[in-house]
What we know:
The structure holds 2 protein chains of 2 kinds. Chain A is an alpha/beta fold. Chain A contains 21 helices and 19 strands.
Amino acid sequence: MDYREKFEMALEKVQKAPRYTGGEMNTTVKAWDETPLHFGFCFPDTYEVGMSHLGLKILYGLINRESWSLCERFFMPWTDMIELMQKEEIPLLSMESRRPLNEFDVIGFTLQYEMSYSNILAMMEMGGVPLEGTERGEKDPIVVAGGPCAFNPEPLAPFIDAFMIGDGEDVMTELNRVILRRKTEGWTREECLRELAKLEGVYVPSLYDVTYEEDGRIRAVTPNCPEAPATVKKRVVVDLNNTYYPEEIPVPYTEVIFDRIMLEIMRGCTRGCRFCQAGMLYRPVRERSLEKLTDLAEKLQEATGYEEISLSSLSSGDYTCLPELIRTLMRNMKEKRVSISLPSLRIDSVLKESLEETQQVRKTSLTFAPEAGTQRMRDVINKGVTEEDLLEKVRDAFSGGWNSVKLYFMDGLPTETEADLDGIADLARKVVGEYFAVPKDQRARGLRVTVSVSIFVPKPFTPFQWAPQDTIETVFAKTEHLKKVLNIKGVTFNWHEPYVSFMEACFARGDRRMGRVLQKAYEKGCILDGWNETFRFDKWMEAFKECGLDPAFYANREREKDEIFPWDHIDSGISKSFLWRENEKALRAETTRDCRKGCNGCGLQKWKGVCGYANAGSV
Amino acid sequence: MLAVFEKGERIRHIGHLDIQRSVQRGLRRSGLPVAYSQGFNPHILITFASALSTGACGKREIMDVTMAGDVEAEEFLEKMNRAMPPEMQLKEARAVDNKHPSLMGMVAAADYDLLIRDEAQGEKLAAALPEMMKKDQIMATRKTKTKLSECDIKPLIYSLYAEKKDGKTHLRAMMTLTERESCKPQMLLEALKAQAGIEAEVRMLVTREGLYGLNETGALAPLENM
């Protein structure tokens, strides 16, 4: 029996076969032998998570659009499937033509969150790809990775041949062209990697040497060949209207997490929230035009038949002509019975009118993210939102017929005190009060206020990249306190166990030595760490111990101003001096204005013409 | 509009609800004028003759879509086949009026092809078949969500025979399928395994070849023609 037959057999035994079958509407199966370059797109999590990801759909369409390249998808199988695959010696197969991973010329991982790293190793091993770059031979694929976590590539440096930093649309094709030449010109692996290093936005970790101080901090990161630049600049697509966006996207048979059209209305954010890594990494803010978006929505709806469109961005409320966009989309989509949803609703946007329009289709629960419970704390994190803003929006929502509100907070933020935690409860109580202030016959029945408190993870390229994370003990104590104060009628409190956030913190600011911990933990059986049922904290701690490393060094240590970070040779466009200034302002609870109100000199102004709000004269 | 469609082998593990949703999205992609239900959460007016189990392929599954305007069968077929994935293509369509009786109520039997994956097992099963059919009663276990019960499936079998195609044994069975009672392929297989003295797991590929109703004379006739 060949592996494809065995795979068919395995499908009869697994719990969720539809996540492995493929053949979905709008997927592309190109002729293998007639297409010179074969790209395996790997999403290091399950099908349901991966198929909810916009980046996958963009790159899938972009690579398949080129006559000379094809793209097939790979996902992380669930544990029951993995067991069968191991027992029957079935390799990891693509969704399209069911070919093993190691038959592809390039395999590309998207790095959306740190806790998917062990899945990368698992997928490579199941796909017959040697885990470490140094073990790969001339026949093995080039392994690349991109996405937000690529901005600190160091923990994955031993396993990934090349990282793409920043927006992927342009660099993806450039990278594929170089890898195609490896095939046509018979370049060695080494030659190919050096060529890749010449591309703007590509970081080839094997071309850099890292030295450490005795205490474990980094002394220097130095290129070891002329092709490798001292710093790798992130890629930025300046004009979104002329950047590829798919007009057809795969429609899964089985329900996935975001089973709808995602319309990326803009990229980047001008708010400058100090905890938010995406807000820094995706700068500058760039909008798609109203015409482009209405056209895309039309085409995507026709190609997919989806019932829902969500507007996707970091801060949809800031889109310049949001009310007009929503109105136009609603008008165009009403006949087709398509609803429009606004996921990352910011509470200080002028949305009342839009809210009223949303309700004509469906009343879903409203989500607000004040992030912190007191004004002082919100000023520290530069979340430019006041209590009155929030309450006003909630009041509008309740009197407009909503009964369900979700509030997102973080604990463990720098300078946090018990008063800030109590502030979360105060705010929740006031939200409940707004509901009861609406006359009984004018409000929807069955109030539901959900308060979710997640644990702050300091991230690279943010003003808090110097900050310690709360220790696990501290987090537990704070959670206990929150449980007590949030025992309010009508309020559900969701809290998180600190272990995953602790591991996330270790990887987020980890150096190359974290790669050893990763490999060790993987050998001990750690996979699918983003899932409660499979996450094994004890194994991770054993791995740290066996590697002679202290997780607290990465997670709980406060850094000095001038410490060399593992990611300092990656240029996100945001200067370290700006981030430090922001850090100092944070400690003084001083806010920084929205970039749209004037340039704050984050560093992007040095790249001429990239940021529309940049003031060249600013520091 | 009454239409015959296929559920291909590759997608046989997709459940009925997902198949329904896929057809609905296909209709939405097709641009055809479909009718929606009234109410706050309108849905496309569509019924399926019978839910096909997860794991089974279907050669001639049947659906009935209520249109919001006049559509020719050819146009329906052409537009839908452009809008549906390769594994879910339509084979026929026929305009029927709104007074067409409910498909679900009309189904009387289903024609199954059971491909036995292991040929040694296939031969044993085929050999045991005549003996089993001679018996007055064929007992099998019916599984529902809550309980197991024993029942006689002999009255539920219209016809049953074995044939060989490409060196593999196929069992062909026409069996009762109504809203009230039905004989599932797995029940038949269990009974036949018992007759053949096979205890090991038997892997089979189930394909529902077609759905049947009873015509005026009480004979089975393809449902899509009724």
